[in-house]
Amino acid sequence: MTPQHLTILTGASRGMGLAMARQLLGPTRHLLCISRKVNDELTAEAKTLGATLTQWSQDLADTTAAANRLQAFLESQPANTWASATLINNAGVIPRIGPLDHCPPEDLANALRVGLEAPMQLTAAFLRATTAWVQGGWRGPRKVLNISSGLGRNAMAAQAPYCAAKAGMDHFTRCSALDEAQREHGARLVSLAPGVIDTDMQVQLRAGDPAAFPDRGRFVELQRQGQLTSPDDAAARVLAILERADFGEQPVADVRG
Hints:
The chain is α/β, with parallel strands linked by helices. The protein contains 8 helices and 7 strands, in the order βαβαβαβαβαβαααβ.
C-alpha cells in the first residue's frame, strides 16, 4: 500500500477551516478533522472524491481529553502508513466583545483553552507520538501549522482574551521551533496570520457594541470596501505556504508577507 499523507485539522466544520478541509480532500491524504460538530456535507464530498476522511466530534476546551485522544490515535498507527504528518491548529473563539472586566470568567477560560491551551496540548501530543516514529526509523516530514492572527501582534481594545491567545500561540511556536531544531529530523513549525477573512468571526466583530468596542468601525469599513478575503481564497493561500520548501524557516509569519 502506498503511504498516505496524514493531516490533522482542528476547527474544520465552518469558515476557513471548512474551506481548508475541502481543499485537502484527496486520494493520497487521510484527513482527520477535529471539531465540536461533524460536517455531513464534508463527509459526502469525501465519499464523492474517494478521499479518506475521519471526523471527530470533540470539545477542544477539554484540552487533556483532546490531546490524549490524538496521541492514542497516532500511537496506534504504524509509522510506515504515512508519507508525512501535519497538524493544523485552526480552531479559535472570540468571547464577549468588551473590556476584560466585562468578560464572564467562563468565556475567558474557554477562549484561552480553545485558542491557546488546546493548540499547545495537541502540538505536544503530535510531537510526542511522531518523535517516537522518527526514533523508530521513520523519516517522513512533520509539520505544525498554527493559525494565528495579526491581533496576536497588534493590541486591540475589547479583545484581550483573543489577542492574548494568539500572542501566546506565536511565542510557543517560536519556542517549540527552537526545540525541534535541536533534534535530528525535527518537526517544522509556523504560526501564520492568514489575513482578514470573511467569516462568522467578522460578523461578531461588526455586531459589537460601539460603546464597548472602539475599533468596530474599522471592521465595518473592511467589509464595506470589499477588503475581506473569502474563506476559499484564504485557505488556498495558507495551504500554499504549508507546501513551500522553506516552511518553518520563519516560525512566525503572515500570508501578506
